[in-house]
Give the backbone structure.
Amino acid sequence: MEFRDDVFLGITVVVNVLAIYFALFIAPAEVALGELVRVFYFHLPQAIVCYLTLVISLVSAVLFLRTKQTKYDAMSESAALLGLVYGMITLVSGAIWANAAWGVYWNWDPRETTTLVLWLAYVGYFFLRMSVENPERRASVAAAYNVLAFLTVPLSYLSFIIWPSLHPRLAEGGGGLGLTGTMVQALLLNILGGLLFYVWIIRKTYGVRLTKDELERKLSEEVRIAG
Amino acid sequence: MVLALVWVTLAGLSLWLIRARSNLESKLKD
């Protein structure tokens, strides 16, 4: 298992180094955005992973509500935690880009605002978890809240369709980014690298959470025997 | 800058997870 994990991590590192090389040195500058387009090769994959991990968190929460198996609660929490991390990276990298392109870090664009709402909704998820002491009740309440919090994901994704927004679109035409040839290759490689790394890190996060559960079980068993 | 933000954050999280796992496992063995 350890060896397989190391091989997987090795492949992930190689793909990501190649992806960074493509993004920085092979892909040309874009006509309208110039060199600034390179930010997208790193911003977009993290945003995709953020949405993906929140979908996994939702599916696991629903599975927990149906089966009451704690492994689904563990997966749901692990995926939501990574949603916070990837969400933070997406927000900050987007703000850096916005400052370079629009002259301000934050201008309450619908995409920025709804993604911030999404992030805060999942911060609330962790505050909620911390506020409930009983583990079974905590898992049930958190899973129910997770289903509600997920509503912010389609809201963030569709925000620039629902409201007028300055956020660039990938599709050509209608103000979209015209990515061609090596630019598409750079973007796809970065998406692949981001997804591979996510697979590695969600396994690690889930593993830590399971080990923590096992330790808590062991400690409460010892307390019960001593009492 | 964005590249550094992405990979420094993810590398930091990875190291934290690896340390947390080994700390928990050593507590389990005690």
Remarks:
- The mean pLDDT of chain B is 90.
